[in-house]
Amino acid sequence: MPAREMRWWGWGEDGQGGPAPAHAVAWLEAQLGGPLGPETPPVALEDVRLPRTRLRRRAAEALRAIVGEDGVREDRAARVVHAAGKGYPDLVRLRAGEARPAPDAVVLPASAGQVSALLGACALAGVAVVPFGGGTSVVGGVEPLRGPHHAVIALDLARLTRMRRLDERSRLASFEPGLRGPEVEHLLRARGLTLGHFPQSFVYSTVGGWVATRSAGQASTGYGRIDEHVAGLTLTAPAGEVALAPHPASAAGPDLRELLVGSEGALGVLTEMTLEVQPRPAAGSYEGWMLPSFEAGTEALREMAQSGATADVVRLSDERETGMSLALSGLTGARAALTGSYLRARHVAGGALAIVGWEGDADAVLRRRRATRAVLARHGGAALGPSAGRAWARGRFHAPYLRDELLGRGVLVETLETAGTWSGLERLYRAVRAALEAHAPFVACHVSHVYPSGASLYFTFLAPMERERPLAQWTAIKRAACEAIVDAGGTITHHHGIGRDHAAYLAAEDGEQGVAALRALKAQLDPAGIMNPGKLVTSSGRPSR
Amino acid sequence: MPAREMRWWGWGEDGQGGPAPAHAVAWLEAQLGGPLGPETPPVALEDVRLPRTRLRRRAAEALRAIVGEDGVREDRAARVVHAAGKGYPDLVRLRAGEARPAPDAVVLPASAGQVSALLGACALAGVAVVPFGGGTSVVGGVEPLRGPHHAVIALDLARLTRMRRLDERSRLASFEPGLRGPEVEHLLRARGLTLGHFPQSFVYSTVGGWVATRSAGQASTGYGRIDEHVAGLTLTAPAGEVALAPHPASAAGPDLRELLVGSEGALGVLTEMTLEVQPRPAAGSYEGWMLPSFEAGTEALREMAQSGATADVVRLSDERETGMSLALSGLTGARAALTGSYLRARHVAGGALAIVGWEGDADAVLRRRRATRAVLARHGGAALGPSAGRAWARGRFHAPYLRDELLGRGVLVETLETAGTWSGLERLYRAVRAALEAHAPFVACHVSHVYPSGASLYFTFLAPMERERPLAQWTAIKRAACEAIVDAGGTITHHHGIGRDHAAYLAAEDGEQGVAALRALKAQLDPAGIMNPGKLVTSSGRPSR
């Protein structure tokens, strides 16, 4: 399974996604109040503005001495590919031919020992280090900021792709950080196992990136977030190594695992992680339901989560996202009419679409499906059958391709997410939606993860791109949404992470003393401050962009 | 529900427990190879050696200005009660009339604001602070060490006993730290809810102590350990407050909750905790099973934990603990003969006793019981019926009383615990047992918590007390066991915590860099180092006793 490199200017690989069908374009134009622009291709790679490398020759030689000649790349292609993640501001910048900031070099260690030696050499030479896994961050997590240092390298973990141990008796698998989603599942499938972690970025993101960003997958309501899978962990930090054994549970003081999970490369490099795995499900079943309203749907989800009747995949769209899904599905003519009368007869027309899915042994799937369905029916839901579920499963990793296409046609497309307690969820939903609607004509939302105490909210919004000032436009919307989230008591991020974009809001999450504690920790593990400057904790408490 | 104060020299209150019946004494004497000594009562309170208070008058006045005249106690009774926890070395010391070290005063704040003011005054005056909840630590967690400071106070949280909020929609309850187990359940029962946390210390230990020590309860296999219940948390530290909102989940960097859970008073005082609660179970069922051997039993437990067929209470005794349980049960004559032939006919005589219990709605209990029983039967188990389960449930909080009685009759009784992965569990069990058997004629073990990746091991051991040097005897055994645990890859503690007794082994758990990170954190939150000196992280990395 050869590693797959993404397009430098957007998501994924050529030949996937787009172009959007005519009915989808028509619907989008109706929402945006005007025609989409013509497709504007990104500039050619050779025309991208790329600053000359600042890495001093002696430093480059020190790095080559550790990883070999071919382990240090300073060529244009490598530097541009590692110049940004896949967030909206990243792609706007790259498509316009602006690679600044770019890493001065890309360095590829092949072992934890090489990582350790590289960090030592970089601390000595005053070179910042940005750990780089799949490069799929949408919050600026891999932006190559150099902070106060003379140069910055991207530390690409693509050569650290081994499964180091598989303890089948204890259901624990130990991975190096550079394995991508399909590679992890391929290795486990051979032994009848699965990790069960399927974020939208699954095809390109890495196991190290999942742990470093406290990732949630699409089936995390059932399988658990990545943090719930982490049993053991090794952090290679400039000051040394922190190696935590995979004890099943412990009362030995503060849990350092939970400090390293979510550390976003700002404390060091996660060089090995031992994760709980489980048998591959024998059966699976996905289906769609229509609820009378988003409010009725969230009540159903709350009952599911609190009564143990929840599905493994739970996704509830609000009315606007439901409208979008139906419009983009391309349902027309007789089938659309049939669907419409079915929904009207069941008093759920104009309602909220839910996708629910169960995995496991066949008996358990049947029993659990019965329990979930009973709750959905009790809240006025109408079953849509398995085809809606299959359609969702088919397209689950594809949304980013559509974003790329729209971006090329002058549309601002962005997503952001939060989570809140059940008692505060409606207020949080209304506050964030209102903040976004002040800037964007189309705002939609779904719940994708439910817990006994609350749920996540995932917003998607579209607006005509202000072509003269796309980044200022984005910054204004993003700020409005973040402030609404904080004011309404939500978490600043439920699954994308802090990175560069949310660093200013970490104090709202952890308090000034909490941030000070994280800074003290960083000063201990990374005394020269070379690890991923400007991300997670910043010296000023403000993001550095 | 008035607060109940424990006896200063032992567990619980007068009129509970003992004396042990004759058959139990006979069995114990057979194990120990000689007669128990006569009951030696503890010295009288007025004869306890208590050093003069070292708290300077000006400091005492500053504290009284914050909490009022009756909030600062310097009397003998208060100081002796707060001079130790309830570990074996604590009780040996107290019974012998030695209260050194004792706190110079006992201070009772009535609000988080008063806690904050007290910490400020203590930092200024150079007074160490030992947070004191139920005082039930068995690892020296409340030993009033003053470190480099001129005096030390016990900060008794007995006046902080309010439920601050109950969010029934989100199933979250916010408590002050000083509430004891029965008080927590009493408050929740009024709303049909439960926390489901029942450590052996339940009657006397506090919710703050549970969170501060990362406690596991007897039903934690089903309900989850206390750390799994913590949604929000407020730490009042000398440097300021860390207040973490009860987000249902978040990707906002490292999880500071998990740093404060298990912080054992060494970073500050947990002044409020928001915990996930759930409906009180409608039905419950406990029963006993006999497995052919401890090894067969652990295999059954592994299958239960990994197939989702686990009970809420799971407890499996090894052959020696099973023998003890049968001997102490007082089964004699015809009933004993009947039981013996039943066990022989099923090839489980001399085997391993399991107690399993399920709670929840009646249907779920039935279904889950069926699943658990099928696993137990598959591994050669024979059902003993509900009476064995009821006997366990009846006595579940009583073992400490027996310990007190034995201690008074010259018997060293101690327990310690660890956890390991399934693949390493047998090796861990054998290693710790061998280390203990080198010092103690009777060593028994049970598994009380199971996880998909492993299980806990809880050892009980008895030896004739070396009356001339009881602490040296204990120290030698404890060290041997701890080293065996570390060498065999177990965690140094699964539910008792680090405290004073395990502080030397924290580096084996977290590594030198991990401990350095915790020290950096402590330096940030407690710059004067007044919080619980000598516990959790010590400046030398060695315990200070």
**Oligomeric state, counting identical vs distinct chains:** homodimer
Q: Report the helical percentage of chain A.
A: 25-40%
Principal-axes shape call of chain A: globular
Question: What is the terminal separation of chain A in angstroms?
Answer: 37 Å
Biggest β-sheet strands, sense, barrel of chain A: 8 strands, antiparallel
Q: Can you count the beta strands of chain A?
A: 19
Largest interface: A-B, 87 and 87 residues
How much of the sequence of chain A is in beta strands? 15-25%
Average predicted local confidence, pLDDT of chain A: 94
Backbone CA Rg of chain A: 23 Å
What is the overall number of helices of chain A? Answer: 19
The helix/strand class of chain A is: alpha+beta
Low-confidence spans of chain A: 540-545
Care to describe what's here?
- The structure is a homodimer of 545-residue chains.
- Chain A has 19 helices and 19 strands.
- With 545 residues, the first copy, chain A, is α+β, with helices and mostly antiparallel strands.
- In chain A, the strands form four sheets. In chain A, strands 12, 13, 14, 15, 16, 17, 18 and 19 form an eight-stranded antiparallel sheet that branches. In chain A, strands 5-6-10-8-9 form a five-stranded antiparallel sheet. Chain A has a four-stranded mixed sheet with strand order 1-2-4-3.
- Mean pLDDT of chain A is 94; it is low at 540-545.
- Chains A and B meet through β9, α10, β16, α17 and β19 of A and β9, α10, β16, α17 and β19 of B.
